[in-house]
Amino acid sequence: MKTIGIIAEYDPFHNGHAYQIAEAKRAAGADYCVVVMSGDFTQRGTPAVMDKHLRAQTALENGADLVLELPVCYAAASAEYFASGAVALLDRLGVIDVLCFGSECGDTDILSAFADELLAESPAFRHELQQRLKEGATYPQARNHALSVTAPHLTASLDVLRSPNNILGLEYIKALKKRGSRIVPHTVSRRGSDYHDASLGAAFSSARAIREALRERNDIGCIKEQVPASVYRTMERAYGHAFPVFPDDLSGLLSYKLLLEQEQGYLSYLDVDEAFSDRICRLLPDYTDYSSFCELLKSKNMTYTRVARNLLHIFLNIRRQDMLAFCREDHIYYARLLGFKKEAGPLLSAVKERASIPLLSKPAEARRVITQKAGLQMFDADIRASHIYSLLVQQKFGGPLQNEYRRQIIVV
């Protein structure tokens, strides 16, 4: 039995994702595909456009055999944390042979070469990096400069590190190398629109373009050609009562959270430093909504996405000390099952036999099968995030709150 792993957000699942799964399975000669998927919040610092249960269903209907949830502390974190948590989850399953990921460059070797340089982190590299950071450069700018000085043989390929999927791929490879994992990395070239493209194009538009079209046009029909037919049917059923959710739907609750803690500041939260905490306090009287506040807070050395992630850490109570504790004890304590295919019985059996963490199929079982205090803390954060997302949906569309403990596993 050969099994590939894919790390994804599927926000939403589109034609390019279906292509990636099919191509990855074909290239690896795989029998099964395990997806580790972000839950209800994303690495961009925003709520997912559609909840995790619906997104798991779309993945299972289009090539995935098993979908597991990436804990929110990693799903809403920087590329390094995101990759470390997801790779640890795949590695601890004990069944993954190949980690497949999309990239703009399509070259595993060059990404692996960069990973080696960054893991080595020579004194010269650290000096150049810190010097540029002190001068006000963003981390990516400082990192690329340091590499140009200390790894001249890679200078011609530095443009590779300007593309988001290449950067994630690099972090996946770093995480595999740090763990000494037996999982082999393999990249599939992205097909169609660029990650940053915000407008619809041919049948392979980016997830961002699809989200923007849904937001601007207020018409689900505009994205029909961009997603597999089964995904469109799921979207049609959910449209207007559970989907779509957009970043500004956070605005009211986020404003409340920031006001509640303004006097004490926000330094305890992941990635929030004193300067950023002070900037929030100073600009909070100008708050109108989530997206415009992100624009107010961004600066020459802090991107919009990093601002959004920091605000999400505050919103969801993701604290620095908690993340340090999670990582210290090998990142992952359970594998939360969102859904599987009926034909994937042998894969499920293999996971139960070989995994070094429990496979959690029912949230109510958590306190019986998760033995570490940090693991239960991580699980509670996941449940809380899902209930907050359900509150966003209720505020926007009405209807009852969804209780995460009563949600059923998706079986396709």
Describe this structure in words.
This protein has 412 residues and is of the alpha/beta class. It has two domains: 3-104 and 187-240 and 331-411, Rossmann fold (3-Layer(aba) Sandwich); 248-323, no CATH class. The protein has helices at residues 15-28, 52-60, 72-75, 79-93, 108-120, 123-134, 139-150, 164-179, 207-217, 229-238, 251-260, 274-283, 290-297, 304-315, 320-328, 345-354, 366-369, 373-397; strands at residues 3-8, 32-38, 66-70, 98-103, 184-189, 335-340, 359-360, 410-411. Helix 16 links the parallel strand 6 and strand 7. Helix 5 crosses helix 8 (164-179) and helix 11 packs across helix 14 (304-315). The longest helix is centred in the last third of the chain and has 25 residues, at 373-397. It is globular and about 55 Å long. The model has no long low-confidence stretch (mean pLDDT 94).
List keywords for this structure.
412 residues; alpha/beta; Rossmann fold; 2 domains; 8-stranded mixed sheet; 18 helices
Outline the fold blueprint.
Elements: E1 3-8, H1 15-28, E2 32-38, H2 52-60, E3 66-70, H3 72-75, H4 79-93, E4 98-103, H5 108-120, H6 123-134, H7 139-150, H8 164-179, E5 184-189, H9 207-217, H10 229-238, H11 251-260, H12 274-283, H13 290-297, H14 304-315, H15 320-328, E6 335-340, H16 345-354, E7 359-360, H17 366-369, H18 373-397, E8 410-411
Parallel strand pairs: 1-2, 1-4, 2-3, 4-5, 6-7, 6-8
Antiparallel strand pairs: 3-6
